[in-house]
UniProtKB/TrEMBL annotation:
The keyword Lyase applies. Coiled coil: none annotated. It comes from Streptomyces edwardsiae. The lineage of its organism: Bacteria, Bacillati, Actinomycetota, Actinomycetes, Kitasatosporales. This is 4-carboxymuconolactone decarboxylase. One of its GO terms (molecular function) is 4-carboxymuconolactone decarboxylase activity. Residues 26-249 form the AB hydrolase-1 domain. Residues 338-420 form the Carboxymuconolactone decarboxylase-like domain. The keyword Lyase applies. Its EC number is 4.1.1.44. Keywords: Lyase. It holds the Pfam family CMD.
Length: 431
């Protein structure tokens, strides 16, 4: 185990010191123990490196708000240990780290396995709303529902000890680090880059996974040039825990036969890797529709990379949510389109993106102004945005009380009714 500076990750090694390194990356809410039943077999051939996400498994609570930042911390940890080249298998959020490695640091990867992974995990709105729920209610609601997301019903009923282990694993995670990891998943979108993944890749998914299931797995296989699909029957999202023997066998087969040699530093070229194994549990993947791997919805019109419209659209989506912004832009026509462009460019790209105030403070100012103006529809929208920007319900209450003094009791009375409804909707855990 390890001492953990803020820019690195908590880790452990298992297996012979002279063996090639194989890294196992965890899912959101789990610890390195999710791989316990794979380690005995994997350490016959590899030196297995496992890590914990920040604030998970007792790791120091230094939140990382993007997949790129998590990947950077992993690489900094490996640099300190002198590990230059490795195989990598990651589950869900750990799989996103694997995709990031393949896109940004391909020279470090010998082979890749993506379990319960996706080039984009649901929608940004879903994960940011989960962050709001955790910020308001703590992790207990998420912990209690974890077995439903992670395991099939039959497994959860037959394995009460593992089910309770899963609940406690989530419950003991640092809430701030969990929220930051949700933000990392919300902003992760690798769909446009899949064709650049040049490392041999096994895409492995449980047949009953309702979180990132076979459809997402086939999107990965359709987009990655050298990828094979393995569908494990009778398994849900946390497939290494639910079907350990099948997962171990598939990983051994993949990393034994698809370990790409290192770059030749003199020529910059790589020898052709060995032919990949056909996973025994896979049906030949069907090509996914092009729409499945299309880039995110582009902004209307043509804009240069330095155009504040692009910055504004990004900020607007992060604060108000993709669903709202998509609806507003879809409704824009020749009459209203110029106004929407003005709002995106100058309000969101010009003012909201300025560094002088953080988003929490800007939300406080915005809520007060909307109370003063009696703009209740926009107040509902920006109450959701304030929760997304990190304000708690108690802090929103204090903003409205302050507004009552300076904007008037009737205005604040109407504002409290609107904000109360939104807070209830946004902070009530979904069944």
């Amino acid at each position: 185990m390890s001492e953990t500076p803020p820019n690195t990750l908590q880790y452990r090694f298992d297996g012979p010191e002279d063996a090639p390194v194989l890294i196992l990356g965890p899912s959101l809410g789990t610890t390195w123990h999710m791989w316990d039943r794979q380690v005995p077999e994997l350490t016959r051939q590899w030196r297995v490196f496992r890590f914990d996400l920040p604030g998970h498994g007792g790791a120091p609570a230094h939140p990382a708000g993007s997949v790129g930042e998590l990947t950077g911390r992993l690489l900094a940890t490996l640099e300190g240990l002198g590990v230059q080249r490795f195989g990598y298998a990651g589950c869900a959020l750990g799989g996103a780290v694997g995709i990031e490695l393949a896109l940004r640091h391909p020279e470090r990867l010998a082979s890749l396995a993506l379990l319960a992974a996706s080039p984009r995990f649901g929608t940004a709105d879903e994960f940011r709303r989960r962050g709001v729920v955790v910020r308001t209610n703590g992790l207990d609601p998420i912990a209690r529902s974890a077995p439903e997301r992670w395991f099939t019903g039959g497994f959860a009923a037959a394995q009460p000890a593992i089910t309770e282990w899963a609940v406690q694993m989530v419950r003991t995670t640092d809430p701030g680090c969990y929220i930051a990891a949700c933000e990392a998943l919300a902003s992760f979108d690798a769909r446009a880059g899949l064709g650049s993944v040049g490392v041999p890749t096994l895409v492995l998914v449980g047949s009953e996974d309702q979180v990132t299931g076979p459809a997402e797995a086939r999107t990965l296989v359709a987009g990655i040039p050298d990828a094979r699909l393995a569908v494990v029957p009778g398994a849900s999202h946390l497939v290494p825990v639910e079907q350990p023997a099948a997962v171990t066998d598939l990983l051994v087969r993949h990393f034994s036969t698809a370990w790409q040699p290192a770059y030749d530093t003199a020529t910059g070229q790589t020898a052709l890797p060995a032919a990949m194994v056909q996973p025994v549990l896979a049906a030949p993947p069907q090509p996914a529709p092009v729409a499945e791997i299309a880039p995110a919805v582009p902004a209307q019109g043509t804009h240069t990379a330095s155009d504040p419209y692009d910055t504004g659209l990004k900020v607007r989506r992060e604060v108000l949510g993709d669903a709202h912004v998509d609806r507003i832009l879809a409704e824009a026509d020749d009459f209203s389109g110029d106004f929407q462009e003005l709002v995106t460019r100058y309000a969101w790209g010009g003012v909201w993106d300025r560094p002088g105030l953080d988003r929490r403070t800007r939300s406080c100012v915005t809520l007060t102004a909307l109370v003063a103006g009696g703009h209740l529809d926009d107040l509902a929208l920006h109450t959701r945005a304030a929760l997304r920007n990190g304000l708690t319900p108690d802090e929103i209450k204090e903003v409205l009380l302050q507004a009552a003094v300076y904007c008037g009791i009737p205005a604040a009375n109407a504002a409290f009714r609107v904000a109360q409804r939104v807070v209830r909707e946004e902070t009530t855990p979904q069944e």
